[in-house]
Backbone:
């Protein structure tokens, strides 16, 4: 007892280890305040994730339009409408097309780029920066700039260059549905490949050089050492990079919107654009909420699936 | 043989890098031209270097106001995220109680919930508390980022030897003092990395200001460039100039923070 009063002033200074109960008591006392350290993040989580998520789920089963105070329960109507609305279906189609093609093409471009940037050559640092830089400014601004470059009029930058070189007339980069869709993909590849290459590069640089030396001594060709050393060791990087590409692709909004406003027609309209227009501009909260829940499921499934794949691969390769 | 290959790689890669950079060259070079010259020879160097476009942008658009707005939102958001994230990480490593463990486990859900799934209710929530069309409303939304910060900081904080915290505790330091005097200085590298990474997100974000901000005097830089497209439909050089002015802070940021951006990219991507 006497000990605990002195320890309040000069805590835990007693050098003998006989007061074994004291530390536990202190840890316990610390626990109460430690819990408080997590209070702000708990507030953020509840207020910005749990409550709005719950509301989205609830509204998705109602005809809530933002004005009536007691919305009617409509069951799965919002969900079935989702799959009947042509603009929504085309948004779904385009978003999946965008997510899948950018995931594949950025990966296919980023791995060779990373392998090259990992070699020594003159001006390597400058080249690395040049490829990486498009990932730094806002995608929205890049989309607007590319809008001028790909302007489908004859006065558009790319069109006037093509005209002066080949004499061809204006190409409808952004006013033809297919070309507009491809344009959004190409601009994304331009903007993202360097970023993902740097990610791969970080993993490449972690591969010990002796692996390659040993394989060289054993007579492996360049392709063989890539196939049997580099590629397997890049699997974790591929999992990470493709997860990011896929989820960002499904959630995409900025780039198609600033480049084409979702047009021509609905051809480059994304699910996120539909959600914003329905839920906020037109206050069709019920319909937008069904889309929000769909988002949660699709993105959640992709994340969980990718996590499972990554774990399985890591177990296989380590 | 290998020497030739080096030269070949060099030439090829520099050529590709130059090609990649043409859009940036294009917007910069056209800010110094007249509109007529921009249309007639988009990629040529200007015959006479003119600064009229810059004068026009600074006089005719609220770019300075937007810059101030963006700085205000970014600085406060990042500070808030890092504070909430590091406090929570500290609570998590010092406290092994069930409550903390449950909070720690549940927070993972934040990575699965996409912003799209909460956007409409959040909008309605902010309307309810009169934080729509307000810079502080944006800061509230960006507080979402504290969970990402928490995970990265937690991973780093686990590398602090437990003996160090124990020693401080034995010397009589209270939990907040341990956090402030010992833990915060030790985790500075990760705070910088996460801070740089999140700065890029907040500074560049388009979707949140586009949804939540409607009045001109509350625009962020990115939103201002977006609305300027309508304003300058035919005046391309002015639009390019505004873009260049907006890109300058990002270029400086890139030059000085490149190392941190890359380390943030690598550690951030691992957490997903």
Residues:
């Amino acid at each position: 007892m006497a000990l605990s009063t002195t320890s309040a002033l000069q805590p835990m200074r007693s050098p003998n280890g006989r007061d074994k109960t004291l530390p536990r008591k202190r840890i316990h006392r610390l626990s109460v305040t430690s819990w408080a350290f997590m209070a702000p993040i708990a507030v953020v989580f509840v207020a910005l994730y749990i409550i709005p998520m719950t509301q989205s789920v609830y509204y998705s089963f109602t005809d809530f339009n933002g004005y009536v105070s007691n919305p009617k329960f409509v069951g799965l109507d919002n969900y079935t409408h989702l799959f009947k609305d042509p603009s929504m279906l085309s948004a779904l189609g385009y978003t999946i097309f965008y997510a899948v093609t950018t995931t594949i093409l950025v990966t296919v471009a980023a791995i060779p780029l990373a392998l090259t940037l990992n070699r020594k050559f003159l001006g390597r640092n400058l080249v690395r920066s040049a490829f990486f830089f498009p990932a730094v400014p806002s995608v929205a601004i890049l989309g607007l700039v590319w809008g001028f470059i790909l302007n489908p009029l004859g006065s558009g930058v790319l069109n006037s260059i093509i005209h002066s070189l080949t004499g061809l007339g204006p190409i409808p980069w952004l006013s033809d549905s297919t070309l507009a869709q491809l344009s959004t993909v190409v601009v994304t590849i331009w903007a993202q490949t360097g970023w993902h290459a740097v990610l791969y590069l970080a993993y490449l640089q972690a591969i010990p050089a002796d692996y390659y030396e040993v394989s060289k001594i054993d007579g492996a060709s360049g392709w063989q050492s890539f196939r049997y050393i580099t590629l397997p060791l890049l699997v974790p990087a591929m999992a990470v990079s493709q997860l990011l590409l896929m989820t960002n692709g499904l959630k995409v909004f900025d780039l198609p919107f600033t480049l084409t406003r979702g047009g021509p027609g609905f051809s480059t309209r994304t699910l996120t654009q539909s959600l914003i227009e329905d839920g906020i501009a037109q206050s069709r909260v019920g319909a937008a909420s069904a889309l929000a829940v769909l988002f949660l499921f699709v993105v959640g499934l992709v994340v969980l699936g990718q996590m499972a794949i990554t774990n399985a691969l890591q177990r296989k390769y380590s | 043989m290998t020497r030739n290959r080096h030269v070949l790689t060099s030439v090829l890669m520099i050529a590709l890098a130059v090609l990649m950079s043409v859009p940036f060259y294009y917007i910069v070079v056209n800010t110094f031209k007249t509109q007529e010259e921009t249309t007639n020879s988009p990629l040529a160097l200007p015959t006479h270097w003119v600064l009229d476009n810059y004068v026009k942008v600074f006089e005719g658009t609220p770019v300075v106001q937007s810059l101030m707005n963006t700085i205000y939102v970014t600085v406060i958001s990042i500070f808030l995220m890092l504070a909430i994230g590091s406090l929570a990480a500290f609570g998590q490593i010092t406290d092994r109680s069930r409550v903390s463990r449950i909070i720690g486990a549940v927070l993972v859900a934040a990575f699965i919930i996409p912003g799209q799934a909460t956007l409409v209710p959040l909008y309605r929530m902010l309307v309810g508390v009169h934080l729509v069309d307000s810079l502080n409303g944006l800061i509230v939304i960006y507080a979402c980022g504290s969970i990402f910060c928490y995970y990265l900081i937690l991973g780093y904080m686990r590398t602090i030897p437990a003996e160090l915290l124990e020693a401080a505790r034995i010397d009589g330091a209270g939990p907040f003092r341990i956090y402030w005097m010992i833990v915060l200085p030790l985790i500075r590298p990760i705070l910088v990395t996460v801070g740089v990474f999140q700065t890029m997100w907040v500074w560049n974000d388009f979707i949140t200001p586009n949804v939540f901000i409607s009045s001109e005097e509350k625009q962020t830089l990115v939103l201002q460039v977006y609305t300027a497209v309508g304003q300058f439909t035919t005046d391309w050089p002015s639009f390019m100039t505004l873009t260049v002015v907006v890109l300058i802070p990002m270029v400086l940021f890139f030059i000085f923070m490149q190392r941190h951006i890359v380390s943030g990219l690598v550690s951030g991507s691992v957490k997903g």
User: Anything to note?
Assistant: Chain B has 15 helices and no strands. Chain B touches chain A through 97 residues (CB under 8 Å). The two ends of chain B are 42 Å apart (CA to CA).
